[in-house]
Design a protein that fits this description.
Elements: E1 3-10, H1 20-29, H2 34-45, H3 53-74, H4 81-88, H5 98-107, H6 112-117, E2 119-126
Parallel strand pairs: 1-2
Helix pairs in contact: 1-2, 2-3
């Protein structure tokens, strides 16, 4: 019976130095407009304190996802796979050697030690934006 190792990677700031939401806002509104977008998110959040990253993840995600969808609606742009593939993905660069690194990990399953045990390695990439086409090929 095969054994699986699953590795879940955060996309923004882990596999790429960029923030895919800010890049999407820039595509929709123009360069530099992401600051006003995030200022609006802070305003909608309704508190004046500087939140921790955990707070942003837990509380702000629904706010900024809704705000991003409203922005796209106003621009009459569907936030679908085709939009991200054509306009956002080309703007996102992975950290240097990320693809090699992920492939090296995946290739461990071909080594004698792993193959004898029937171990399969799977990578999963988590992102709020459907940027799956940014993920490394062959991994």
């Amino acid at each position: 019976m095969p054994k699986n190792i699953s590795i879940v990677w955060d996309f923004d700031g882990t596999l790429t130095p960029l923030d895919s939401t800010s890049k999407t806002v820039e595509v929709l509104k123009g360069s530099g407009s992401d600051k006003s977008f995030w200022d609006r998110i802070k305003q909608l959040r309704g508190d004046s304190k500087k939140p921790t990253w955990e707070h942003v993840l837990a509380s702000d995600a629904p706010i900024w996802m809704f705000s991003l969808s409203r922005l796209a609606f106003e621009r009459k742009v569907p936030l679908n796979k085709e939009f991200f593939k054509e306009f956002v993905v080309p703007e996102i660069q992975l950290f240097p050697n990320v693809e090699n690194f992920l492939n090296d990990i995946k290739n461990l399953e071909k080594t004698e030690k792993y193959s004898q045990q029937g171990i399969k390695i799977n990578h999963f990439i988590v992102s709020a934006a459907p940027i799956a086409n940014c993920s490394p090929k062959n991994v």
